[in-house]
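Researcher: Next entry in the queue.
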Amino acid sequence: MKELKGLGTALITPFKADKSVDYEALARLLDTQLTGAVDYIVVLGTTGEAATMTADEKYEVRQFIVNYVHGRLPLVLGVGGNNTAAVTSELEAMRNGGILYFTAILSVCPYYNKPNQEGLYQHFCAIAEASPIPVILYNVPGRTGVNLLPETVMRIWEAHPDKIAGIKEASGNVEQIKRLMDERRKANADFLVISGDDGIACEIMEAGGAGLISVASNAFPEDFHAIVHNKDQAKQAQYDQMVKLLFKEGNPVGIKAVLAQKGIIQNYLRLPLVPASKELQEEIKKELA
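Model: Structure for this entry, 289 residues:
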């Protein structure tokens, strides 16, 4: 899918002091993403704190973003969970509820349950069958406790080659990601391998990756455009310390602190997440300077 190559932003969801969605701040944030630096936007993923939002809130946020973006950028919708039946029911319920405004869904590996590879295979096959639009798998073992192995990715793709658009690989295991790309080449498989780690985007793209789904590009879209589109390793190195700070106290804690310091949003999160500590905010302020 050509429209999902390059730089995608894993969009945060701004909140007010009363923890309601701050749509004015969301509009300001979207304006920074619609300047030409970003190739697509990922809505209501992990970075968007979707796990703390009600079904009605998620509907309202996605409709607001669809209407505001108005076709100017492709949109990817986060739809995942650790109850396969609930995820497939959600997808089926959205068939007539605006999901067709999205280019693909991004679906994370089931968390907490810790399924084996066969369980992961059957879970994603069920999602592929239920989804009316293409699926991007999302492997992030540091959050889910399970690692989607290259052999399982290939099995899922072989079972549903028309539905599996790609994988967001955030395992941080470069050798595993390179092995997946080798397996993909051997099978002549047509799906995207997208880096889910800001800090290793160039390395993954040099090995054949299709781009980056970035947290940092919420705040630094132009620079991360250069990193992704020019494979600018020097500029990526300039952001090494900032990327470490973004994830020091968890995501989206760090990126919300940055965006608040840049005046785009207010620095509010929903429990169990809390704003960055004073120490981290001071470190971010110095790094921004």
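Model: The longest strand covers residues 164-169.
Researcher: Noted, moving on.
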